[in-house]
Amino acid sequence: MVIKIIEFIFSPFLAFIIGVFFLGLFRKIVARIHQRYGPPIIQPLLDVIKLFHQKGFSHGALFDLGLILSLAGSIVVVLFIPFGGICPLKSSGGLLVILYTMLFLPLGIALSGGEGANPNISIGISRKLILCLGYEVPFLLILLSTMSFYRTISIVDIVNSQKNFHWTLFSPLFLSGIAYFMILPAMLGMRPFDIVSAPQEISSGPAVEYGGKYLGLFHIQHSFSIFIMIALFVDLFLGGGENIFYFFLKMLTIFFIMVLIHSVFPRLRLEQALRYLWKWPTIFAFLGVIISKVVR
Amino acid sequence: MDEELKRKIEKIYKDTEVEFPERNRMVVKTKKASTLSILEFLKKEGFRQLKAISCVDWIKEGEFELIYHLAPLNSPLHVMVKIRIERKNAETETILKIFENAKVYEREIYELFGIEFKGNPDLSPLFLENWHDLPPFRKDFDTRKYVKKTFDEIPSVEDRNERT
Amino acid sequence: MNLEILMITAFGGSFLTYLCGKVSSKVRDFFAVFISLILVVFISCFYGKSQTIHYFNFFNLPLILTINKLSWLFAIAVEVITALSVIFSLSYMKNKEKLDFYYFIMLVVNASMLGIVLSGDFLSFYIFWEIMSWSAFLLISYNRGPALKAGMKYIVMSIIGSICMLVGIISIYTSYGTLNISQISSQISSASSDYILLISILFLIAFGIKNAIWPFHTWLPPAHSEAPSPFSAVLSGILIKMGSYGFLLILYIIAGLNLFLELFIAHWVLCWLGAITLVISTFIALLQNDAKKLLAWHSIGQVGYIILGITFGTNLGFAGGVFHIFNHATFKSLLFLTVGAIEYRTRGVRDLNSLGGLIKKMPITFFGALVGACGLIGIPLTNGFVSKWLIYKTLILKGHPFLAFAALIGTWGTILSLYKFIHNIFLGQLPEKYKDVKEVPFSMQFPIVILSLIIILFGILPGIPLKVINSIAVSAGFPSLDVSIWGIASEKGALNMINIFATVLIALVLMRLVFQMGEKRTRISQDNNYAAGSYIPVDKYNYTVEFYQPLFRMIKPYFRDFVDEFYSKIVKAGRTLSDRTRKIYCGDLGYYVTYIVLFLVILIAIKLWGKVW
Amino acid sequence: MDRKNILKWLKEPGKMGHKYSLWAVYFCTGCGIIEIPPTITSQWDAERFGVIPVATPRQANLFMITGYVSVKTLKAIIRTYEQMPEPKYTVAFGSCPINGGMYWDSYNTIKHIDKYIPIDGWIAGCMPRPEAIFIGVTKLWMMIDKGAATGYIRYRKNYKFYRRNQEKLFGKLPWPPLYPVDEKENKNG
């Protein structure tokens, strides 16, 4: 019982650390690609400390509650995702519950942003929801292909059935793996698809009215969502890792590739992003589902 | 092409004189009364683009000089129609009917020189904030006096604080 | 306490309210509320008991009233939703005219729905079905103008439906001599499968029209948006569910699902019909700019989930489908009541492009709309999530990933459209003309709060309704589902709502503490906003027009209501045809005499020269 | 540069946080903005000190007045300054904000920016080079350390005078005062 409590406290904390480390790494790699020295790796932590010492402005009760709800939702999702052997909420919900609790993230930000009563925020939120719809089409097909391939809806079973190196990526489902890899930048909100928080166009979208500790919470929530998206990929397609270190290594490689893609591509318009997302990734995911039905 | 244009203008408008100070430059000096008809004529001749309206303040002769810069779309020739209006209560006819984009140019000249353009619907202030003085571009406007009156008048916050 | 008294109180009560209306409006309002609450109490004391009464003889045909677990569940849902909407309409309809007629018809609809659910034989089923259709028509066209056209469309399609049902009933009577549902269900299994197919098609058309499945859905959007809000809450909350009750009746009691499963084509058609209904109508809802039309299109969409749940003969699917019927009843009527509250306060404005910022003025209505929207989307901790989870599990484990994909994409369509609904009405800048809007009176807040509590309670403790549904499933011949108070425990992926609720609560409290750690925040008004350094005066910063503009450009041509256009083409063709015949059949006597003479001449000619026979 | 000094971080995280993550509002007020891109890009990377440009004043705590301030831009500067969260610092570039510089007698530039919004640091140079900007930033660190960068406290304390100066220049301002200004004292003030 005590291990369970430790797991409950440990995994969100670990997720936060990994997420913040990834953000710091992200800024360092992008700086090095620009041939400049770049901030220290722990710079996001310093930013969050500073932001918690600034007096923010609030537009109303929902402005705070929405943000808190989105952060709490991301913590709950982290508890559901098996993370190198530890998965606190193993028994009480499978992939479908993860999928639906992941709705807390965009909805919380959307509600609190809506209260901020600023056109930039609303444009940012409508872009975010459209982009979410865009990448959900292939994402749902991918999840369905893995679920119907392993005949279960609990993610722990999927991870366990990928023991000793026959990962789903190398199994007949490699097409859905490729599709997931193609939509990962959209899910992380990285450069080819950072239409949502475009600083030049809509002055950082939903985060326009966030100052002080609101921005701090927004950054923490962003780090959690990066952790969630990549951990889901590693769990479904790369066998989920025996212990935390292997899991972290796999996540690091995936994140590194994502950062390289981020610093090379310009930002797409929303229609181009949708056309891309509904073309090749969806075709691969569709074939993946057919393969999962045929091969089973 | 420019010579026969010159002859044509002088044939129609008696009191205008046309000269070519340099290559591709044509200056048409006319009276205030015939500006609208000359602009209409030049527009038909192919000078369809009103590039700008500028104004010169000849304070000694007590006159403003309005210059309409026209340009055709297909040749480098640049025409300047110059008219003179007196300084006291300077006002002239608007040319919105011929060139719609003249609205903002006239509004600017009204704000900075004080020339009234009769018929221009919107002559509200464009650049200056909370301005109650002479139009600033006139030669008789003394900027140093204005600065002393508006900016140096405002006390700086610090010494206000020390004294009380 | 037998069923006959129940029906008498239901119908008699409605008539009495009409009489009280003559006396004084206060007495009538009080009496209407009293009747609906009494009916709720009567029904709830029938829990668990089953009883059949033969109450009338119609030319030696026994009319039977019976109650079992399934009909009890529907009956309690009917009563609760109607009681809440009657309470809501107390102050909503305050300054409208013809209120006696309104309350009378509202209670007649309630009584007829009760009759449908309790009827034991097809004849009384049909009689109450007609009463319900007609009284619903009267209420849909209550406020004149476009509502008349919507009512006409509704009544024409429900007549077609009831005619099909009548043909089905007559064919059953001729082949089996009895109309008693329980006797028929035992004898029908011996009939040939294509006879069963014919019967179920006839009945499914009738219930499909009432249930607004995809090809027969065109009456629903105009009917729901033109009806007065309390009644459109009843209409889309419960009246549509009579169609699903008919589905359950046909699939499980008459045809028996294993029979139906053998007719592979019908089963496959029904599933894909449900999936198409789901996807197309949710995305059409996305494009609507009128709040009630948006919700009406969602009513059609959610029926797709119910169909997907019911037509798979597993106990999970049955539980998911039936549970979703009641979830949809709760959050759909809640959403319609909130729109009614908005209409009440903004004097009839429900266009999504001109509202905004009402959260500051109407917090309780916002809470109701938010909980209703979360229920409709299926956010965890609401009952919508549990029923959708059950339906998805059946779809995936039965090996239909593409149907599950259609359902999941439908969820994302609901998310986008309901966020537009909440954002355009409650969030954003408050326009100048709604500055003095106040919260709705208590009699309108009470149903909104009750329904939100039901949604959250059944979301956190899904065991309560699932136990009842499980007992129905067992009585309908399904293997029992190990249901406990917190959810479903099963080897292939369990659902434990209490754990989810506990973790979310703890996470919320923790994050609130983290939020408290930061510096104190200052509250600012809506005009102190970032506008790149410039100051935006009042009312110049409203911006809720065309919320998903980029998406509309891409999906607008594909998601139109083709069926509606197809039907209007048929209507136009019919009208041109009738115009043409008017030329011939033009009404003055001379022409008719010439036609008769001509006809006789032709006959004689054939007789003489024809030599044909 | 005591960023690595953990002890200081634990003692006063607020001050250290504001020192090593100065987020500047990307708002070009005058001719000096041409110096900002080279400071934040690869030649003189400002991000290594934690200084990054952000899109909105809500997220920023450093406001750089780069170059001369025209009367019209002052309105936007005041509006942006008031929208920044509380511990905020302002740095003015060049001599024009100090006393009008070469526009000393022009009718449409502000002579003493200090009369309208508080300024913490001044960087000399008719558009200081990136190295000068870094020196300015380090000076700002020292001021924050000593607690001398109190522009925002001065603004809150003397808001009445700042507001009066602004209204003397612009007439009636459209937006309400940031801090409550009691009218009666303003008359005889």
The topology string of helices and strands of chain A comes to HHEHHHHHHHHHHH
In the predicted model, the low-confidence regions of chain B spanning at least 5 consecutive residues are none
Number of continuous helical runs of chain A: 13
Mean pLDDT value of chain B = 86
Fraction in beta strands of chain B: 25-35%
Spatial strand order of the main sheet of chain B: 1-2-5-4-3
Largest interface: A-C, 81 and 75 residues
Mean pLDDT of chain A, to the nearest integer, reads 89
Total helices of chain B: the number is 5
Number of domains of chain A: 1
Shape by Cα distribution of chain B: elongated
What structural class should be given to the helix and strand makeup of chain A?
mainly alpha
Strand % of chain A is under 5%
Which structural class matches the secondary elements of chain B?
alpha/beta
Helical amount of chain A: 55-70%
Number of strands of chain A: 1
Q: Give the tally of β-strands of chain B.
A: 7
Rg over CA atoms of chain A? 19 Å
Question: Main attributes?
Answer:
heterotetramer, A: 296 residues, mainly alpha, 1% strand, globular, D: 189 residues, Rossmann fold, three-stranded parallel β-sheet, two-stranded parallel sheet, 41% helix
Task: Write a structural description.
- Chain B has helices spanning 2-12, 35-45, 102-113, 143-150, 157-163, and strands spanning 17-19, 25-29, 49-58, 63-71, 78-86, 91-93, 116-118.
- Chain B has 164 residues and is an alpha/beta fold.
- Chain B has a five-stranded mixed beta sheet, with helices on one face. Chain B has a two-stranded parallel sheet with strand order 6-7.
- Chain C is mainly alpha-helical and 613 residues long.
- Helices cover 71% and strands 4% of the residues of chain C.
- A three-stranded antiparallel beta sheet of chain C has the order 3-4-5.
- In chain C, helix 6 runs antiparallel to helix 8.
- The termini of chain C are far apart.
- Chain D has a single domain (6-157), classed as 3-Layer(aba) Sandwich (Rossmann fold).
- In chain D, the strands form two sheets. Chain D has a three-stranded parallel beta sheet. Chain D has a two-stranded parallel sheet with strand order 1-2.
- The model of chain D has no long low-confidence stretch (mean pLDDT 87).
- Chains A and C meet through strand 1, helix 3, helix 4, helix 5 and helix 6 of A and helix 16, helix 17, strand 5, helix 20 and strand 6 of C.
Write the layout of secondary structure elements.
The complex is a heterotetramer of chains A (296), B (164), C (613) and D (189).
Chain A: H1 2-33, H2 43-51, E1 57-58, H3 61-80, H4 95-101, H5 104-115, H6 119-150, H7 155-160, H8 174-188, H9 199-202, H10 213-237, H11 244-264, H12 270-277, H13 280-295
Chain B: H1 2-12, E1 17-19, E2 25-29, H2 35-45, E3 49-58, E4 63-71, E5 78-86, E6 91-93, H3 102-113, E7 116-118, H4 143-150, H5 157-163
Chain C: H1 3-23, H2 25-44, E1 51-58, E2 61-67, H3 69-92, H4 99-118, H5 122-140, H6 146-176, H7 181-188, H8 193-211, H9 220-226, H10 229-254, H11 257-262, H12 264-287, H13 291-310, H14 315-345, H15 363-377, H16 383-397, H17 401-426, H18 442-460, H19 463-475, E3 483-484, E4 487-488, E5 495-496, H20 497-517, E6 522-523, H21 549-555, H22 562-584, H23 589-610
Antiparallel strand pairs in C: 1-2, 3-4, 4-5
